Amino acid sequence: MTNLFWPGDERAGDLMSEASLLEAMVRVEAAWLDALVDTGLAPASSDSDLTAVVTADDVERVAAAAESGGNPVIPLVTLLRSRVSIDAARWLHRGLTSQDVLDTALVLATRDVLDRLLDELRSQVIALSILAERHAETPMVGRTLTQHAVPTTFGAVVATWLDGIVDATELVVDARSLLPVQLGGAVGTLAATTELAALRGLSDPASVAHEVVTIAAESLGLRVIRPWHTSRAPLTRTADALVTCTDAWGHVATDVATLSRTEIGELAEPSVDGRGGSSTMPHKHNPVLSVLVRRAALAAPALGSTMHLASATAGDQRPDGAWHTEWATLRTIARRTAVAASQTTELLQGLHVNAARMGATLDESADDVLAERRGVADLVDAKHDPDPATYLGITLDIVAGAVDRARIFLEENA
């Protein structure tokens, strides 16, 4: 996929595409039908392999028919029933509701995004750990409110980036582990499935309904929880994790963009032929990766807010409009986060550090950045050390702590 409005969108590949969502919806229908057969609620003759019944070639047809019912599940079910045996058509989708299918499909599609993010995040954690240790003692000017403050090290700066990315990664791991199936029927009570079990003469219809859900969930690799048609925490939690990722990457990109300014020149993005140029100024080497990552970080919070707004207004037992708002919003934030993840990994793995320039800037500003040190010395009537590279506080501990935390995290989430 490509997107003229979002340069780099092709980095997300088929994640959360229309074709992948359609495929996920078919997987949900297939898992439910199999579960009905496995529990004896549907006859064995109704079992059907739905894998290739509907394909990406059907996306346009399903999408065009979705308006009539307000969602794409209704035309999908119609299409599936027209292409399978009479018995399979009769039992397909029985006991489900459209929201069950679409919610679970969105969860499946989102899981693929989270898996991609975890791969990218692990690569970033490794790259930053190496960078932090390598520059643990590389002195540079520390800046606050855009002005020179006191000395720090580049390793300490990177350690802050690293902590932010590990924080985000922990949220992604949590969101990934908690992804649930959505199987509740019309109003989340599994009434049709329970009734069917009773009509079959089974001794404990409610337990059978639970069993159908469990079998379907296990086949999809999702967690079983009570129906969450109007309790949208599974999706807002995931959106929050995505926004936190872009927050962390935005912090990195902002620092890189600032420190790569011509008049500062302490960092530079990896060099790639044709990247960073200007249409009119041939001398330019724009920090394009940082710019595009910052773009994602600036846009993500509003999308996350929309997910929370939809959650807050999900009324009755099935939402009217709020649920419908989530689909494209989640798709957009998920794809953009995947793109930003790839761009950030490339940025970090190829980042150029000009340690000599950092040292020179620090030396030139030594009188200013040691003002605090002189003040401390005056308190006890002592002489101060004029070397700014020796006024670094606990920077080594900061680097060691961040790197150790990252190492433990990687070991526990290998």
Description:
- The structure is a single chain.
- The strands form 2 sheets. The protein has a two-stranded antiparallel sheet. A two-stranded antiparallel sheet has the order 3-4.
- The chain is built from 15 helices and 4 strands.
- Helix 5 runs parallel beside helix 11, helix 5 packs across helix 15 and helix 9 runs antiparallel to helix 10.
- The chain has 2 domains: 122 residues, Orthogonal Bundle (Fumarase C, Chain B, domain 1); 273 residues, Up-down Bundle (Fumarase C, Chain A, domain 2).
- It is mainly alpha-helical and 414 residues long.
- The longest helix has 37 residues.
- It is elongated and about 90 Å long.
Structure keywords:
single chain; 414 residues; mainly alpha; Fumarase C, Chain B, domain 1; two-stranded antiparallel sheet; 15 helices
What is the makeup of the main sheet? 2 strands, antiparallel
Strand order in the largest sheet: 1-2
Question: Based on helices, strands and strand pairing, what is the structural class?
Answer: mainly alpha
Care to count the β-strands? 4
Mean pLDDT: 95
Write the CATH homologous superfamily of the largest domain: Fumarase/aspartase (Central domain)
Can you name the CATH architecture of the largest domain?
Answer: Up-down Bundle
N-to-C SSE string, H for helix and E for strand: HHHHHEEHHHHEHHEHHHH
What is the CATH C-level name of the largest domain?
Answer: Mainly Alpha
Total number of domains: 2
The shape, in one word, is elongated
Low-confidence sequence ranges: none
User: Given the structure, what is the number of helices?
Assistant: 15
β-sheet strand percentage? under 5%
